[in-house]
Structure formats: C-alpha cells, structure tokens
Amino acid sequence: MRRYLLLICLLLNACSNLPLAIKNPPQFDISYSQAVQKISNYKDAPVRWGGLIINVENEQNFSLVQVLYYPLDSGGKPQVDQPNEGRFVIKSPEFLDPAVYTVNTKITVAGTLAGDLERTIGKKVMRLPLISATAIHLWPVYVYDNRYDGFGYGYGYNPYYGGYPYYWGSYYWPSASPFMRPAFRPR
Q1: With 163 labelled, which of 20, 32, 106, 186 sits at a CA distance of 20 to 30 A?
Q2: Nearest one of 136, 138, 107, 129 to 21, comparing CA atoms
Q3: pLDDT band at 31 (very low <50, low <70, confident <90, very high)
C-alpha cells in the first residue's frame, strides 16, 4: 500500500505546472523595500516577486513588463488584497505578447536584480528595480459563472441548467437565486 501512496504522490507532484523557480523562493529572499532602499547592494541577487501587470513594451531583442508589486503568498501567488509597495520592471529576452500579458493580470517572476531603470510615470521620473527574468508565471483568471450546479439541496449536479426552478426544502427557487453556490471556470 505504501508503494502505491508514494507513486500517487510522485504523479501528483509531476502534474504541477508551476516552474520550480516560482514555486520555491530563493534561499535569501530580498524584499521589495530592501531592494528599493539600496539597489546597488543587491545587484545580481536572486529574487521572486509578483504583482499585477501595468504595461508591456517590446523592443527589438527583449521585452519589458512593468508590474505593480504585491507581496506573495507561500505558493508564490501575488496577494492583491494586501497593499502594494511600488513598481518594478521585468526584462525578458523572449517576446512577450501584450495580448497574453494583459493589464491587471497576476504575474510572478523569478530572476536576478539587474539594477534599476528610469521610467516616467505621469509627470514624475522614477527609478524602478529591474529584474532579469529566468522564469515567468501568469496566474489564470477565473470568471464568475452564475449557472447553478447544485445537487438536490444546492450542491453538486443539476440536470436543469436552463432557467428552470429547482426544489429547495418545501418550495421552489428560481435558477437566479441569491443562494446559489458560485461556480468558477477559467477564462
């Protein structure tokens, strides 16, 4: 039985689509506030940062992605419910399509601090930390789907996907009930 359990664990671990550089933080993780205060002290230091994409610029040989920094959770996903601390720029040698890397998409990058870059934001000129990317991960966007997918009393399978009412207790509710369990599906 133990052999099967080990095999199942190995198979489930192999199914993870998160790059190891994103999944595992660097040994000495440098925070955004440390790097901004004295960027020259941390040149070529490994970092794992993330946030929301602000814009993408494609040059001849590289792409620059400006990101609004948010702290990461233990899995490396940006926590956008926390306060943001500033901006940083990702430099990738690959072409990053602006149709894929859209504004307000969650992104996590692993790489090294390559210094800073001067950017004009509004009428203010700012120096933003520049990360030379080794791994980039876009987090999937989930869209609210208001179709009911309940089983019996509100959970599971529902054979009436249309606008049919369903039975709940001693009376019927319409399919657009506020008591529906929200279903999420990737966009």
Answers
A1: 186
A2: 136
A3: confident
pLDDT in tens, 102-125: 999 999 999 999 999 999 988 999
HEC-encoded secondary structure of the chain: CHHHHHHHHHHHHHCCCCCHHHHCCCCCCCCHHHHHHCHHHHCCCEEEEEEEEEEEEECCCCEEEEEEEECECCCCCECCCCCCCEEEEEEECCCCCCCCCCCCCEEEEEEEEEEEEEEEECCEEEEEEEEEEEEEEECCCEEEECCCCCECCCECCCCCCCCCCEEECCEEECCCCCCCCCEEEEC
Higher local confidence (pLDDT), 155 or 47 = 47
CA-based angle 41:64:35, to the nearest 5?
Answer: 20
C-alpha closest to that of 32 among 57, 52, 53, 51:
51
Among 87, 92, 70, residue whose Cα is nearest residue 121: 87
C-beta separation of 88 from 113 below 8 A: no
Judge contact between 110 and 132, C-beta under 8 A: no
Structure tokens belonging to residue 125: 């000129």
| Tokens, residue 39 | 């960027």
